[in-house]
Amino acid sequence: MTWWQISAAANAVIMAAYTAISVAIGRALWRSGQWRKNRLGLATTAIFFTCGVHHGWHTVHLLLPDHAMNVLTGHHMTGGGDMPGMEMGDESDRDHIAGNPMRLAFNDPSTTAWDIITAAAAVWYWTLRSRFPALVRGAAVFEDLKLRQAEEQTLRESEERYRGIVETTSEGVALLDQDGRIGYANTRLADLVGRGGPELPELDLVDLVVDEDHSKIIDGLTRARRDGTQRVEVGLCHAAGRPVSAQVALTARVGATGEVEGFLAMVADVTDQKIAEAQLRQAQRLDAVGQLAGGVAHDFNNLLTVIDGYAAMLLAQTDGPARADLTAIRGAADRAAGLTRQLLAFSRNQAAKPRAVDLNELVGGLEEMLRRLIREDVELAVRTGAAPATVWADHVQLEQVIVNLVVNGRDAMPDGGRLTIATDHVDLDAHESRRLGLPSGGQVVLTVTDTGHGMPPEVQARAFEPFFTTKDQGKGTGLGLSTAYGIIRQAGGHITVSSAPHAGSTFRVYLPVVAAVVDQRPADPGAERLANGDETILLVEDDPAVRELTERILTAAGYRVLAAANGQEALDLARRHPTIDLLLTDVIMPGTNGRQLADRLTKIIPDLPVVYTSAHTHGVLDERIEGAAVAFLDKPFTAATLTRTIRETLGAHPHTPHAMGRSAENPRPGRTVPIPRA
């Protein structure tokens, strides 16, 4: 037997073993269902099969007859020189070798030895066929491991990406189980409730909500389970006790079985929005109350005008004991007028009327009322200096400032304490004047000190902000200190606060000092005298009692009066009478108001002097009116004040009657008169 024949037999064994191995591995892949996803197993099968085919091809070529090889190779090989291994066999064998190139290539001991070793290995590998399923499983595990590692890497990247989104979002995020217990919460939610992140897991969502809103969360979870999503607005329990309003969006998380496995809670902080809405509602309520107060004050002042006017007329005609009674009536009317001024100040329709005010006298006059304002467990101490503490401001507004500061101090001492009001003089140096934004020099200081719970720095920083309050809901509007601040700044002063927790608070009001108070009150109301005249006055007043009283006062002072109840009557009277020297009109009237009437009449009678009267202008008049002789007279007014105002307004013009249609080529000098801000 020659070497090539042994190689042919070895290749046939290799072909059979490799083919059987590839079939066995393929069958294992098919039965395990891994033939599509186990790429390593498929590659192993393909390698064994192709190797089996390759060795089978060798076997076929070695065993083909010579004429077949001639056909395949396309030529006939003749004998040549000897080749290694030809010494085996007889002459006929050498002839067969010489005619087949494959035999020539494999007729070598070393090649034959390698084929025998490969055939032995193939047979040995085939004997291990019972372990092929485990091999397949191992390959699958290896392949699955690589796939799993890739998927886990992708999953980690996805988790990191979404965790970054969740942790940096402006809303709190929590994953809840079916019972509403928190499994995960981001740092934003922890910040909203003032707790550390590790504290939140295993807590129920309702544990983060104020007691009165527990039912909202429970009902929201029930609705979200049924409808898929639900939104509720609740208050959160902040660890520091700070009020936090939140909108919670609950979304059901559905599992593969279609059952709700838990919930996703998105918690948005809407505290600022709720505060803004509350401020808007408060402002709207205050505006409505202010409009009501202004209307009440207008009607009330009309009544006071009549009461005080007739009492003054009787006082001028009466002697004896009745005079004191009439004086008391006028005094009561004057105090009632002060109340209406406070109503108008609240409605922001009262113009500031600054004058020299002695703070010592003002505080002393308020002391009895302030004692009634505070509780019995609060001790009030008033300390005023010996020297006059005179400032230039509206005394009614200063009263409001003092009352606001006293009420603020009272509320800061729920368990009682001591409230001290003091006045003093200080001289501000350059440093203090720059710090306070005031001119250097003499200042009057009004100090209000309480022994209450005090304020931390963050509260002090916002003490004068409108609507800011630390009081419970319904117990404060947050306007007291801001109103005081606005009044003091309008008067050219400044207000400061110094406080510390559990150490009380001290408010200091700085106002520039002015000269001593000049007595601005008439010594005897009965001694008031009318300012007489003989001009023609067009009186327009819709209130019959006020119109009748005003007409009597003007007639008693010597004036000729044309009285009208509304704008249309006034226009008709103006057309029927050739001369009118002055228009005296109420501002707020049905139909044509006083400003509209004055505008129409001054087109007919150019440069006509006008005196407006009202307790509440409702924004009809501008803050200042220029170019014509204009005056404004607050209601209630006295007879002397009325006639004096008319006399001063007419005195700005030469005494020449105003004819209808008079030319305005040479207008008389006008003046600017302050009008109350509406």
Question: How would you describe this structure to a colleague?
Answer:
This protein is an alpha/beta fold and about 675 residues long. It is built from 20 helices and 21 strands. The strands form six sheets. The protein has a five-stranded antiparallel β-sheet with strand order 2-1-5-4-3, with helices on both faces. Strands 7-9-10-12-11 form a five-stranded mixed β-sheet. Strands 14-13-16-17-19 form a five-stranded parallel β-sheet, with helices on both faces. The longest helix is centred in the middle third of the chain and has 47 residues, at about 270-315. The radius of gyration is 53 Å and the shape is elongated. About 30% of the residues are buried. Mean pLDDT is about 80; it is low at about 75-90, about 520-525 and about 660-678.
Q: How many strands, which pairing sense, and closed or not: the largest β-sheet?
A: 5 strands, antiparallel
CATH hierarchy: architecture of the largest domain: 2-Layer Sandwich
Structural class: alpha/beta
Mean pLDDT: 78
How many domains comprise the coordinates?
4
Strand order, main sheet: write it out.
2-1-5-4-3
As a whole number of angstroms, the C-alpha radius of gyration is 53 Å
Number of strands: 21
Percent of sequence in beta strands: 15-25%
Quaternary arrangement of the chains shown?
A: single chain
- Residue share in helices? 40-55%
The number of helical runs is 20
Span between N and C termini? 131 Å
